[in-house]
């Protein structure tokens, strides 16, 4: 359940023949905007919330619970999709933009198609759509003849069962028919500004030994830890009780982002002209999507130069921590992928 800091109400029905669809009618409450519902088939309890996976400022963690389903409302108006400002931007999920756009064009259900004169007009059409909740749109470029060049969808990457990895695993068409891929944009709820002096997720106390790699400045551009721009990376991993801290030291100031692959929206740090920075990977929940198998926790970290677009100069590292609970020993490892 995505719990809200403002509203959460529980309604229990004692009638044993109550159908799930009958229980959902109570979302039409006038007390607040209901964005999600959790229904327990065992206790027949329905819990309403004014938050969903797209609202910000709260930690979202899903765990499997037998006999419990989570629903999100598609009956919202565009101005109800977010608690604050609603904007549209290219999703920053660690997947190439053209892959996401092509997947949307081929596999998304198109709720509405129209011809528009510009990208701004397509964006406006999605913003003001009132027949369904428009969560994303695909603009295919300037109009050509009578062809539609603007597609509106109720889907986005959060609605996909496998999340951003869906785009990576999809096969591209064997034949290129020359059709334009276009530009894909998703609804995003802007984060509220953090009060001055308030702690952030990246201010957790983590202590690294202040040791420098003496070979760092002597690395060549052909080294596996260097990219085509001449930037070389010294990556270290600190295995903590509740997180994996990945620290990066570079031979020259770095500008860009570091994030967990497939979780660039919820597990990232923006780096501005710094040669030393850190990303904390949570070990539980979906924010960083850290995987665990019998005491081995692993994740994939991306060092990206551009704030939005991935390039061949970007580095990808597989990091892991092994926890031996019997002897309490902790080991770490890091392997560059490219």
TrEMBL record:
<feature type="domain" description="ZP">
    <location>
        <begin position="238"/>
        <end position="338"/>
    </location>
</feature>
<protein>
    <recommendedName>
        <fullName>ZP domain-containing protein</fullName>
    </recommendedName>
</protein>
<dbReference type="InterPro" id="IPR056953">
    <property type="entry name" value="CUT_N"/>
</dbReference>
<dbReference type="InterPro" id="IPR001507">
    <property type="entry name" value="ZP_dom"/>
</dbReference>
<dbReference type="InterPro" id="IPR003609">
    <property type="entry name" value="Pan_app"/>
</dbReference>
<dbReference type="Pfam" id="PF00024">
    <property type="entry name" value="PAN_1"/>
</dbReference>
<dbReference type="Pfam" id="PF25057">
    <property type="entry name" value="CUT_N"/>
</dbReference>
<dbReference type="GO" id="GO:0009653">
    <property type="term" value="P:anatomical structure morphogenesis"/>
</dbReference>
<dbReference type="InterPro" id="IPR052774">
    <property type="entry name" value="Celegans_DevNeuronal_Protein"/>
</dbReference>
């Amino acid at each position: 359940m995505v719990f809200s800091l403002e509203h959460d109400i529980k309604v229990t029905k004692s009638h044993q023949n109550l159908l799930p669809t009958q229980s959902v009618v109570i979302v039409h409450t006038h007390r607040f905007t209901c964005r999600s519902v959790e229904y327990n088939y065992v206790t027949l309890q329905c819990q309403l919330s004014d938050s969903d996976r797209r609202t910000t400022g709260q930690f979202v963690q899903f765990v499997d619970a037998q006999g419990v389903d989570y629903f999100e409302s598609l009956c919202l108006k565009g101005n109800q999709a977010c608690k604050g400002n609603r904007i549209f931007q290219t999703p920053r999920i660690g997947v190439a933009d053209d892959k996401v756009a092509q997947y949307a064009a081929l596999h998304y259900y198109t709720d509405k198609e129209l011809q528009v004169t510009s990208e701004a007009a397509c964006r406006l059409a999605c913003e003001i759509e009132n027949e369904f909740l428009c969560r994303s749109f695909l603009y295919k470029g300037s109009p050509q003849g009578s062809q539609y060049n603007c597609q509106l969808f109720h889907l986005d990457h959060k609605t996909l069962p496998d999340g951003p990895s869906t785009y990576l695993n999809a096969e591209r068409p064997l034949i290129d028919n020359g059709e334009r891929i276009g530009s894909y944009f998703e609804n995003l709820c802007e984060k509220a500004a953090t009060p001055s002096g308030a702690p952030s997720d990246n201010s957790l106390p983590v202590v690294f030994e202040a040791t420098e790699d003496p070979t760092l400045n002597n690395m060549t551009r052909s080294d596996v830890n260097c990219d085509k721009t001449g930037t070389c990376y010294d990556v270290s991993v600190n295995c903590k009780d509740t997180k994996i801290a990945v620290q990066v030291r570079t031979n020259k100031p770095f500008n860009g982002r570091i994030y967990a692959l497939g979780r660039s929206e919820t597990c990232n740090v923006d780096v501005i002209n710094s040669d030393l920075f850190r990303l904390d990977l949570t070990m539980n929940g979906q924010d960083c999507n850290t995987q665990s198998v019998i005491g081995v926790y692993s994740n994939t970290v991306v060092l990206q130069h551009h704030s939005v677009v991935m390039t061949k100069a970007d580095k990808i590292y597989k990091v892991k921590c092994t926890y031996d609970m019997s002897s309490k020993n902790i080991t770490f490892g890091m392997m560059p992928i490219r």
